[in-house]
Amino acid sequence: MSEKSSGSRCVLGKVVSNKMDKSITVLVERVVKHPVYGKYIRRSTKMMAHDENNQCNEGDIVTIASCRPMSKFKSFVLVEIIDSSLK
Do residues 26 and 44 lie in contact, with contact meaning Cβ atoms separated by under 8 Å? Predict the structure, then answer.
């Protein structure tokens, strides 16, 4: 499951969907500075990641790492679950 190399990009995000088989959708937020006004703006990106054992639930905080493309949209793999939100 932790098949990451030394040059892989690791990001932290929140699981927003786990309805697919062995796949999750992770929302990654970042803060960028506006080029003209200087105000910091929150930007978000949805990334699909490979979850081999279907162990993630919606609302979990996870770490994902880049890997080879597994499908058209999926090029990240689940590394670990930081915070699990079991209801």
Answer: no
